[in-house]
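User: what does the whole thing look like in 3D?
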Amino acid sequence: MLTVGGVISFRGLFNWLNPYVYVPTMLVAPIFQILLFVYIGRSAGVGTDAFYLVGNAVQYASIPCLFAMANTIAGERWTQTLGIVLSTPANRVALFVGRSLPVIANGWFVAMFSLFVGGWVLGVDLPVSAWPGIALTIAIASASCTGLGLLQAALALRVRSTAVLSNIVFGVLLVFTGTNVALDSLPEWMATAGRLMPLTHAIEACREVVAGASLSAVAPLLLREGLIGAVFAVLGLAALRWVEAESRRHATLELQ
Amino acid sequence: MSILEAHDLRRTFTTTTGVLRRNRKQVEAVRGVSFAIEPGELFGLLGPNGAGKTTTIKMLITLLLPTAGSANILGLDVVRDAREVRRHIGYVFGGDRGLYERLSAQDNLRYFAELYAVPARDQRARIGELLELVGLTGREKERVEGFSRGMRQRLHIARGLLHDPALLFLDEPSIGIDPVGARELRATIAGLRSAGKTILLTTHYMFEADELCDRIAVLSQGELVAEGTPAQLKARVTAGSVVEVETFSGVGPADVRGKVDAVGALPGVRSVVVDDRPDGETVVVQVEPGVDVTAAVLGTLSGIRVGRVVTREPTLEDAYVQLVSS
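Assistant: Here's the predicted 3D structure for the full assembly of 582 residues, as structure tokens:
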């Protein structure tokens, strides 16, 4: 269920994501986002290219992670398999954690690709020795963001328009996580909120790794990122369980 | 022991309208339904749209909690023991969807085998057996999006049987399938019955229910209005006859529907129903035994162009129409 089931369901629900859709939305769009903010930074004379490159590349992992997790429910509704899936005895934790694994892998790939190609286009020096640390940091960032996506999946059991919410959350993460404006420069309440969100600590850790810091030096940041992701994942799984139970009680489960 | 027992099942929905002034309205979708299904039985649940069939099934397959009453499957309560109940039931509904279109038939079955915790070592053999059972051997590698509706429906049935459930729910499985596909599907269902599988079937097609079901329950407006074998239900109206009158009210000056009450009031008439045809209507009149109302019906329909007039024996469909319209 965790591995085979997760991969088959990902293929079943995201088979429409052919190269004509995947390449522009997952691989080209983040490069434009990176270029936009790098050039804004250059023209304003604030921040380095690496600051914007790392921030936007890691933050773009939220697109596959948020949208895909919400779509694990919305997609079932589209194929009208939601009722069938929910009438099976499948363990819900294994079911949804299994579905999140390919999503995490995809988020990781998108962010890594964005960082690599963005760095190459902009001529930002990303030392070879930093890549293992970058890969680990981005994996934790993707997992953490997928935890938030699980919470959205729970909401998708009650509402149909999950893409609207995913867009809003993407915007919130763009502003609050220090992607383009350092937390120190944000109003205090925004910085505090940002520190409780996925990606914030991973972006900071990734910037330090790119600047030459060792993994052990950024371990506290990665632990905090992982902890926040775990909290969101637990909240998401609990919400999924609660919403499913309430839906049986109040007949609010939108099956089709 | 019965495979399924439902006792006084009820389900009320609360609907709200308005934004500022919220008006709440209670709708009783199922109003005290009780029935039992014995092992190996093919039990039909019939009723018009909105009669409460789907709501009843949703409660039995654990997707909806009853407002009152109870139901158990193999002695397991559908509310308290929901997860355990799910291990013993299969659920198949009709229509185009309900499968992962861009996966192959085999991958669809493989995924649901995972959900039903079919051991990995048994999956391949089980899927092969079921594909053969539903006549899809050789097509298992093809994507479902290329399947006809009949093939999809047979694949649905294979999916519902993956974990060898004690009770299979078939919710209008033949809806929208062409005659050949529907015949193949009925053969598959009949094969399951012969193999001893216990099935709850809902359908709008009376000949299908007549051909397949051991017993039938008829739901109307949330209540169970009749239960028995197809022969017993037909016997309710066999002591009598049916007069069918083809009309073309679009051609004449009067509307046939305006005459229904008058026909229904004729001595010896039990019930009247008007069925639409592409070129007109058919007035179906159920008549008491020993009474000939043909002349009186034609007299009441004066002013409407009339075609063929037939007097025949009642069918299960007549019994059904009388039950749900009375």
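In plain terms: Chain B has two domains: 4-234, 239-325. The CA atoms of residues 251 and 317 of chain B lie 28 Å apart.
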